[in-house]
Amino acid sequence: MNHRILSLVMSRLLIAVITLVIVSFAVFFATMMLPGDTATILLGQAATPEAVAGLRTAMHLDEPAIIRFMRWFGGLVTGDLGTSYANDMPIADLIAGRFINTLKLAGVTALFSVPIALTLGITAAMMRGSLYDRVVTILTIGVISVPEFMVATSAVLLFAVYLKWLPALSIANEVHSITDLLRVYAMPVITLTFVVSAQMIRMTRAAVVETLNTPYVEMALLKGASPQRIVLKHALPNALGPIVNAVALSLSYLLGGVIIVETIFNYPGIAKLMVDAVATRDLPLIQSCAMIFCVGYLILITLADILAILSNPRLR
Amino acid sequence: MTTDTAKMPAAGRMGYRFNLVGMLALAVILLWGLVAVFAHLLIPYPVGEIVDFDYFGPMSAQFWLGSDYLGRDMFSRIVMGARYTVGISVAAVAIACTTGVVLGMIAAVSGGWTDTLLSRFLDAMSSIPSKLFGLVVVAAVGSSIPVLIITLSVIYIPGAYRFARALAVNINAMDFITVARTRGENVFYIIRSEILPNILGPVLADLGLRFVFIVLLLSGLSFLGLGVQPPYADWGALVRENIGGLPFGAPAVMFPSIAIASLTISVNLLIDNLPYKIRDRSA
Question: What is the pTM of this model?
Fold first, then answer.
């Protein structure tokens, strides 16, 4: 049976690679739709036609789009991300530090939200229909149906304006002590944890409820097994696949949340860099950031599928 | 099986029974719809006019929801903002769902390489995070209302397609489709008269969910300054404009957010409380 798992996983990886090519194609051509000539924009209105023509050749702008795409994609694969239009720095240098900042934020959020969400999701499913379950369900629907920036502004209002525990929007970029560290991370992490946990609780609860509805759980109940035993011994092992899948999928919501959270709290991460790049229309930078996000998203959803395949007991 | 039938609400006078939460949610949605249509009649002050000497003014009898960062009346701006938020979202969701559902039914009925090609391509499209797609397009073409509507609908076509295709594939396996095929009906007849009526309920529920996603994405983009551009403002843009009032807890920051939340939560609640017959027809 291991052979079957291997072939399923390999085919999923192949699909991921094909998707990546299609996505990079889409990102490249979306940014090609920019009206106007890049060389003219860079040099300004006063540039001589010779200068514009020279820059066009230097930037390979006079080649067909497909050749430029191949060149760009080749650069991406080998780690050469090109040069920023706005400040002439290599994009790899601009991104490196920011990328690590964003990863830290995402990592800390995952560290908090996964245990919280799994506990709430599984217990809510166990006590289906109880007051506790209703409260959890209503809260998660509430968080899911409002925009991320509202979660962020509500957190600021609660923790900074009314309780005065944390500073509102002013954030120091220099971290000297543990209190500084808490100040920088607290609000963004709280906001992202809310956004991601809500999705995760909902999916986990659904996965466990679905398993609890199966005939073998009913059988265990008829045998006289205790509720704890039913959930831990009979339901959870089978719900593991869907739960792991749910966790990976919900973590992909981090990507959307991170864009808003970094902007609102002025956090020096890659999403903030990208939003600023949109303002200055720095296309190579936008393309690179967009690809990083797409790759991250693709890795998470592929991981979700692969984990679901691996943890399916029927395939073993 | 008996538990399943017991859960189904008994049929009321119209064939469906509607509970209180569902009714309330529907009322809020209708209210915002009416506000969007009659916004120009409802506003007490012109939207662009500075009427208060104070900025981030508190709620008062004169300015019901306070004033914004320039001293403009917040109530008028939110009422006018309903037009952009509701209008753009309705247009986008209509385009997204029509395209997605039609493509999904075509894929399910024709099968073969049409199905494979469409599904592969749209799956790849859906693996671009939605907010990111919006950012890239807006960076490339600039933001205007038609661009926003098209971008938002393109982002949500894959989801609508997937949903409709999954439903249509089930219906497509039924005997009456085989009968229609043997009768010699063409693809368009089968789609219009045999498949569509059978998937309409769940498709409408899905349309509601997608409307929520679109409202949230539009607000998010506007909040980042990439959505509706000044001097016009939707609810997301109103939050962005007035974010400076956040440290003082100004009503100008809170009420546009509350407006968004009231709309999206109502749509979610309405769908959760839809009569069983409409929601789960496929199951």
Answer: 0.84
